[in-house]
Amino acid sequence: MEQTIKAYIRKERLRYFGRGVAWLMLALIGFFGSLGTLYEVLDGKIRFSAMDIGITTLLVLMCIGGGWRAALSFYRAFFSESGKLTQSVLSQRTDRKQKAEELFAEIDADLAQNVVAFGKLRVGSVWVMGDEAMRLDRVCGIFRETIFLVGSSPRSIYHLYLMDQDNNLQCNLMTYESDLDDAADYLSGRLPNAFVGDITDLPLLVSKNEQELLACLSEVQPPTRAMAAASAQPFNFISVDGVPTSNFTWDDVQKALYALREGESAGLEFLSPIEIPEGKAKLLLCRAEERSRMKLLLLCTKQDGSQHWCARANVEHKEAAALLKACFSYGELSFDGFTEERGR
Question: What is the pTM of this model?
Fold first, then answer.
């Protein structure tokens, strides 16, 4: 994983270089276009020609603006310390004497262990990293944005914004809406005291003073641990290794759920079985399937004491997490969509 942060920087430098080429082309168009409209050469002499002042002004601005943006993009491409990624990392320093290389090594070590991915967004134990980086314990706001583009080929653009305690804003471009929703839901579970909303709620969070913000956060989202304490349903958590444990939090469950690879399972064992139409539920497992889908498996005991499995296939991560959270927080289990699995 030593190359993790270097790979991100390399991609960022390539993006800056591409932008620099595009801005340079625009500047050259403006430069030669303005020459063509300002001058014409007749008999070896340069004379002013009749011209459209508005078009000429636009071309000159293209030349100046494009040249400036091209120079800035090339500078950021060849000097990575000036890029947004490095600047975002430096903004998270706990000690002003820390150098970028030290923080890069810290991020690499963090993302090498138990990383959870949502598209190109990576969430570790300490850091969250996309086009920029931010410490998880400094995040105080999670915002979603969906931009609908109309035209001959309508499409949508998805952004996940994270804001820290110093109002630094990290913008992450998400490829799919499912990645946006899954990442927001996962981070809200990891950060129960963070404000969660749409991008239109951002000014609301920025404008609040410390006392108002704390009051707002307590109203918006009660702490997950407090909900767990109120749960009337005791259970064990079964991780990927299949070993039950009673020492866990919702953070552990959700992190394990999103980190599952195809064929792996994790879930909850109910120490006091939950009443369902099929009898009593003893065990709920989530198994990762292909194409980022989940299969829910429920071990049931009928009235005659016989056991059988019920299954619900093709479930999204978000829906599976919601079902487990209902069990974790309130001891509730919805049997909707489950059917008895034959031959298991």
Answer: 0.54
